[in-house]
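To assess whether ligand presence alters the predicted conformation, the chain was also submitted together with zinc ion. Input:
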Amino acid sequence: MERYLTVVEEKADLLRETADYLWDNPETAFTEFKAAERICKVLRDEGFTVEEGLANIKTAFSGTYGSGKPVIGILGEYDALSGLSQESGCTERKPLAHGEGHGCGHNLYGAGALGAAIAVKEWLKETGHPGTVIFFGTPGEEGGSGKAFMARDGVFDGLDAAITWHPGAKNKIWTAMSLSNYQILYKFDGIASHAGGKPELGRSALDAVELMNVGVQFLREHIPSSCRIHYAITDTGGFSPNVVQPHAEVLYLIRGVNNRIVKEIYERVNDIAKGAALMTGTKESHEFIKACSNLVQNNALRKLLHDKLVEVGAPVPDEADIRVARAFAETALAGYPEADPEDPIYRGIEAYTEEETPDFSSTDVGDVSWVCPTAQIQTATRAKGTPAHSWQLVAQGKLPLAHKMTVYAAKVMAAAVVELVQNEDLLRQAKEEHQKRVGPKGYEAPIPKGVVPRSMDSLRK
Ligand SMILES: [Zn+2]
């Protein structure tokens, strides 16, 4: 086995401890202080030069090792989701005292990416080969699009390529396309009054929110079917029906296949908000919260990652892994179409494909993929059929299967980066393909200047 791969095995305990620490201390978008501190400590201990507070975000950072070209980035995430805490390994819903949980497996994501960066660093150190590896600590993927703020501020500009992964239910290269999105907070101001005694004096902000939602409902028929519009009422204006609500807020999330389409829909939603204000005699204002771009695929890097998935070889689940996964398939995942008690864990590696499969979710990896050639893999860290953003996923985030598939991901990414550092032709090919795909204009940041990241709590009234 190549030396840089044995390094990952030697660091397996460190990666497991890091992943478990993140799982035990779940933190939502832009409040990942413990996670950032822990990962920065590991990077410093390993000899990386750490830079914190990237793009003016306290929990965004980088760890750099090596010198000269090429410069390859490895992206790590570590944010959790609210409302998803769950006891580890438990097949029944059993929340823990804190409300947050790693419902997207970003505890593993951060640790696996860190393992890859450490292995590449060791290889650079031992061989003295020119090249630079940078681990990017990218916060707030969930609902915050940390990477999009970082990309807007030029954090990824010097990269020749970026590699990453995501915990999943299969071992494969990433084929799913992801949607661009915009998130906007619409605010309505009206006039409070006694709802029974003087209703004619009141102007209801809550009515405006409801009418806006009805208007958007009619809009949904007249947008491309690949687009999505979601909303959450973050401020209903109070809990008293006998008071006309003087202020109300609704948070919109608009998705589409690229930034241009999302912007067009956003402008139509703005008109609906204005209409709702006119109908109710209230005032409307809105605040741009965040955005992220669609994913630009890169077949040169996808093929490289696929070859490394095969070369490193997927670990075979043991009896204990299968027993636990079967328990999940039989109870916690009963009724989920892909759950399979007979054969509960995905095995093998999906065949290479250049297909780009439609997908209706979004990721801020999209913004990095507009800046430089970017590709990612997933490994089967959990039982088949486990839905993303679920307590069932949280429950499996600290199990032996999750740990060993994180180590596998780290090895594959390290092998890909080591190859990329040495293989100039391959890197050139990846860059030419990237250039063709993004076109002469290149990346245009969807987040306007001056917009700063907001934590979940700051959006909740
Ligand atoms: Zn995720």
